[in-house]
Amino acid sequence: MDLNFRKKLWTSEKAISIMRPLMKYVDVCIGNEEDAELCLGFKPDADVEGGETNAEGYKGIFEQMMKEFGFKYVVSTLRESYSATFNGWKAMIYNGKEFYQSKRYEINPIIDRVGGGDSFSGGLIHGMLKYPGDQASALEFAVAASALKHTINGDYNLVSEDEVLSLAGGNANGRVQR
Fold first, then answer.
1. Cα(93)–Cα(104) distance, rounded to whole angstroms?
2. Which residues make Cβ contacts (< 8 Å) with residue 155, sequence separation at least 6?
3. What are phi and psi of 140, to 5 degrees?
4. C-alpha 152 chain-centroid distance
5. Residuewise pLDDT in 10s, the chain (178 residues)
6. What's this model's pTM, rounded to 2 decimal places?
7. Which long-range contacts (CB under 8 A, 24 or more apart) does 100-106 make?
8. N or C: lower Cβ tally within 10 Å for the chain?
């Protein structure tokens, strides 16, 4: 489940009243700190708006969400917005035992943020199927896929699995591969 709250579609109160009962059917919950608060009523122990992006502030909320809803995984992206075209980008995943934080990417310039969250969720699903039981590898695949999507115009992530694996493996030199 990707929480993905949209305030133009409903209020937080309405979202909470609908989303909370649905959580018993969810194995993997994906959402940033704002989504968790507005859809489920959980607030992280971090001042994200004030620029505090310490991932440890999220561990407590992940534990609370997992305890209340029985998720197998709780996942969140973490965006550091320096400007409309320059962001830091990473993510976290928790399976009830291990809390893992991905490597951080600096995306500059951002070409198009639309589809960045969907490419993250799709990348996470792909990563979980490709690396069963290895949440770190699944998360690194998802973050790399999403970072690449930010450099592409339009809704769709038009990169190959090999390109995502290359970036996730540390190849960020930007050279054309032939």
1. 14
2. 114, 115, 118
3. -60, -40
4. 18
5. 999 999 999 999 999 999 999 999 999 999 988 899 999 999 866 665 555 556 777 888 899 999 999 999 999 999 999 999 999 999 999 999 999 999 999 999 999 999 999 999 999 999 999 999 999 999 999 999 999 999 999 999 999 999 999 999 998 766 545 4
6. 0.91
7. 100/135, 100/136, 100/139, 101/55, 102/139, 102/140, 102/142, 102/143, 103/140, 103/143, 105/143, 105/144, 105/147, 105/172
8. C
Alpha carbon of 63 to those of 44, 174, 178: distances in Å?
Answer: 11, 38, 45
The overall longest dimension of the chain from CA atoms, in Å, is 52
Q: Of how many residues is the chain composed?
A: 178
Phi, psi of 57 (to 5 degrees): -65, -20
